[in-house]
Design brief:
The complex is a heterodimer of chains A (397) and B (376).
Chain A lengths: L10 H7 L1 H33 L31 H34 L4 H15 L3 H15 L7 E3 L4 E4 L2 E4 L1 E4 L3 H29 L5 H19 L4 E4 L2 E3 L2 E3 L2 E3 L1 H28 L2 H9 L4 H31 L11 H13 L2 H30 L5
Antiparallel strand pairs in A: 1-2, 2-3, 3-8, 4-5, 6-7
Helix pairs in contact in A: 3-4, 3-8, 3-11, 4-8, 5-8, 6-7, 8-10, 9-10, 10-12, 11-12
Chain B lengths: L24 H9 L4 H27 L8 H6 L11 H5 L1 H6 L8 H18 L6 H20 L14 H27 L4 H16 L2 H15 L8 H27 L2 H9 L4 H31 L11 H9 L8 H34 L2
Classes of the chains: A alpha+beta (397), B mainly alpha (376).
Chain lengths: 397, 376
């Protein structure tokens, strides 16, 4: 006869059958397994590192890197600089392409999402075909294909495509644009601009308060535009137009002057942007469709004009659905920027995780820094997303 | 009005009038869908203009001016009206076997072929509705990865083939299918762990999931290719493909875990309470009540993750593995076929588009089918 539960004398079995003690047992076992696992790995690392005569330290960051980085728009870098500096250049390059990528992807994504919602059949279909083709192809192929298009198909610098009568040049060395040169007095214009923006923000708050209390509506948008453009324009003229443009000029085999968007940067930036934009478009479309039609009808019944309906009723509610997945797309874009290594754009994966790793043989340390960098970005964007979610959350009773 | 009526009809005797042109037929369709407002008219004209200026050029290049058989690129371009006037598909045709199998030994290629057939059988068996003997098909699908591994790698009676001979589409599909097959169960376990009420278990799962989701796949592949040997007992070696497969599986299981967690959170708590009040144990409750419903909700997310994983498999090129993209790029350096990058990338893009788009369509179809079951 099998013993029933009350007859069981086996202590372990009884502990296992009690829910609370079972929880304790499972947790102890989890911790034990985890500790043994980590200890084993640590032991293996120590033995393996000793076997190849390597130590674990970050002092290699101070050694000269001895490799060139062609694209360093923010800080000075020569091949005599340290690995730390190379890593910093890489990190800044990652942030640069991620920042501009996010901006362009948002613009393209919202546009495509709205086109996809268009009642015009032809526009709708074109947007659909474009979106489906683009997002079902790996982003790495987009990047490589765009890069080879730029490098192979665009003409060399001598025969650069001239856009706008000597202002912009498109060649296989990159896209050359005039760069702004600030002369004395430009600082004053900047200060005036900042003051104007602060004033406009204060005015907006005040106008909102007045509207809440009395129902009187000011044309906030037009007044703000007039204030910002007007004051800055006057300051600009009063200080004697302290801004000139440095034009790119062809000298020998390449351009001098102006700003250059390198082919690597262009390819990575554009490919990441339109690839991510396809996902953003679907998110935007889903978000707008998620606002029930009753909301629009209610707004119309209250006498709101169509654009006020969109602005006050549809967009705030759609944003609630759009923002969380949108943020994860921004994160994806940032992480995908690590594919820069495939075309030689020097981001942090290519500098520290690529060449520095190969030169110093410090796989462990370099990969820890690179992963830490991406983790910090991810956690920052997630934290921002949580904060924003809290702000726009549906406030129920 | 009354002045024009010439003939009187008794009620009910008037012959049927043709439908009004304004509301039915192609003209009305165009009025509603293309020319309903000034903005729409402008958009339609702009779209037609864009199509008119792009599509003929693309069609000429891809189909009409293309060359399908040639010995090298010079020969290819010689057959066109002007060099680069059309695509040189001869390049893809000539390397097609290589793109398909990599360097898999010629006399053993029946093994990947057989694998592919078995794979199709497994897919059809699992995905088709009303298949007799559903249970056995599922067991077969579970066993399939192991059968396939034995067939491809060899041993136990088959001549062994080294995994560094794998390449091209074969390698891409191996990485994709392995990742898909193993990341789902691991992902479900991680999701359950994250929702467990045991603090240590939960913390371990949260840290793992957030870490993996916070770093790019490429850094994990670097870890697999350069660092992983340090973690293993001294002297042990580990196949590179195996290391990559483990990393890819772990990577996508973290994403699956988040999708499944969403599904679990979407279930009303009454379902959990009902399962508990029936006296079901944790595992029985999840097997019978919770997971079938939670997975059903999360199907779109799961398929999207699978598509992402399949597309991400091309990243192995960066650590030097010769998948379809890596092999293609290696062929581009061949002196005979220099500079045919557009053809290559278009071919690979089409390959991925067909795979991923059909997965997406299937998931849409499945969603619709499951939704009708819920309708009351």
């Amino acid at each position: 006869m099998t013993p029933t539960r009350s007859e069981t004398n086996n202590l372990l079995l009884r502990l296992w059958r009690n829910q609370e003690s079972r929880a304790v047992i499972i947790q102890i076992v989890t911790m034990a397994v985890l500790f043994v696992f980590i200890a084993l790995i640590a032991r293996n690392i120590v033995i393996n590192l000793a076997a190849v005569g390597k130590e674990f330290s970050f002092n290699f960051l101070m050694w000269p890197a001895a490799y060139d980085i062609t694209f360093s728009p923010f800080i000075e870098y020569t091949n005599q600089s340290t690995h730390l500096r190379a890593a910093t250049v890489g990190a800044l390059n990652t942030l640069l392409v991620a920042f501009f990528g996010i901006i362009l992807a948002s613009i393209l994504g919202f546009t495509l999402g709205i086109l996809r919602l268009s009642s015009n059949w032809l526009v709708n279909r074109i947007a659909y075909v474009f979106l489906e083709f683009m997002r079902n192809v790996p982003v790495l192929i987009h990047i490589l294909a765009l890069y080879s298009l730029i490098v192979v198909l665009l003409p060399p610098a001598k025969k650069a495509i001239n856009i706008g009568d000597g202002t912009f040049f498109l060649s296989n060395r990159g896209f050359y644009v005039p760069s702004p040169v600030f002369e004395s007095g430009a600082g004053i214009v900047g200060v005036v601009l900042i003051i104007a923006i602060v004033c406009v923000i204060l005015f907006k708050r005040w106008a909102k308060k007045v509207q809440n209390e009395t129902g009187k509506i000011y044309p906030v948008f037009w007044i703000s535009t007039a204030v910002i453009v007007g004051t800055t324009g006057i300051a600009f003229l009063a200080t004697g137009m302290p801004l000139s443009w440095d034009m790119p000029v062809l000298k020998g085999f390449n351009f001098k002057g102006g700003m250059a968007l390198k082919p690597e940067f262009l390819a990575l930036w554009l490919a990441l942007s339109y690839y991510t934009a396809c996902f953003i478009a679907e998110i935007v479309r889903a978000g707008i469709l998620a606002v029930s039609h009753g909301q629009t009808e209610a707004a119309r019944a209250m006498g709101l004009r169509p654009n006020r309906t969109l602005q006050l009723i549809v967009i705030p509610q759609a944003l609630r659905v759009i923002v969380p997945p949108l943020c994860s797309q921004y994160l994806n874009l940032t992480k995908n920027s690590s594919l820069a290594i495939a075309i030689g754009y020097m981001d942090i994966t290519a500098t520290l995780g690529g060449i520095s790793l190969m030169q110093t043989g410090r796989e462990m340390e370099t990969m820890m820094i690179v992963m830490g960098f991406y983790l910090v970005i991810s956690l920052t964007i997630s934290a921002f997303m949580n904060w924003f979610n809290q702000r726009i959350k549906l406030t129920e009773r | 009005m009354g002045a024009q009526t010439t003939k009187q009809y008794a009620p009910g005797t008037h012959p049927d009038l043709p439908p009004p042109v304004r509301t039915t037929g192609p003209i009305a369709w165009m009025r509603i869908n293309l020319f309903s407002s000034p903005l729409n008219i402008a958009l339609t004209i702009a779209s037609v203009w864009i199509l008119w200026s792009i599509v003929p050029g693309i069609l000429d290049w891809v189909v009409f001016n293309a060359v399908w058989s040639a010995t090298d690129r010079k020969d290819c371009w010689g057959q066109m009206a002007a060099a680069r006037d059309g695509a040189c598909w001869a390049f893809i045709r000539g390397s097609f076997k290589l793109f398909l199998y990599g360097w898999y030994p010629e006399d053993q290629r029946w093994r990947p072929n057989l694998c592919f057939v078995l794979f199709l059988v497994a897919v059809v068996g699992v995905l088709r509705e009303n298949m007799p003997g559903k249970k056995y098909w599922l067991w077969y699908a579970v066993a399939f990865p192991f059968i396939a591994a034995w067939l491809l790698v060899g041993g136990f009676g088959l001549p062994p083939v080294s995994t560094n001979k794998f390449g091209g589409i074969l390698l891409t599909v191996v990485i994709g299918v392995t990742g898909i097959a193993f990341s789902l169960p691991i992902g479900i376990l991680l999701a359950l762990g994250r929702r467990s009420n045991l603090p240590t278990l939960r913390t371990v799962c949260v840290v793992f999931i957030e870490f993996i989701r916070g770093v790019p796949l490429i850094t994990l592949l670097f870890v697999a290719s350069t660092m992983l040997t340090y973690f293993l007992p001294p002297g042990s070696t580990f196949d590179l493909l195996m290391r990559v497969l483990i990393m890819v599986t772990l990577f996508s299981s973290a994403y699956i875990a988040e999708v499944v967690r969403g599904g679990l959170q979407g279930l009303p708590s009454g379902q959990y309470e009902a399962a508990n009040s029936l006296g079901l144990t944790y595992w029985r409750a999840h097997q019978l009540i919770i997971l079938p419903q939670a997975l059903k909700i999360s199907i779109p997310g799961i398929v999207n993750t699978f598509i992402g994983l399949y597309k991400d498999s091309v990243l192995v090129l960066i650590i030097g593995m010769m998948d379809i993209l890596g092999l293609g790029r290696a062929r581009l350096n061949d002196a005979d076929w220099l500079g045919l990058a557009p053809e290559l990338y278009l071919f690979i893009a089409l390959f991925f588009f067909i795979c991923c788009f059909s997965m997406a369509r299937y998931s849409l179809n499945l969603e619709k089918r499951l939704e009708t079951e819920h309708r009351r």
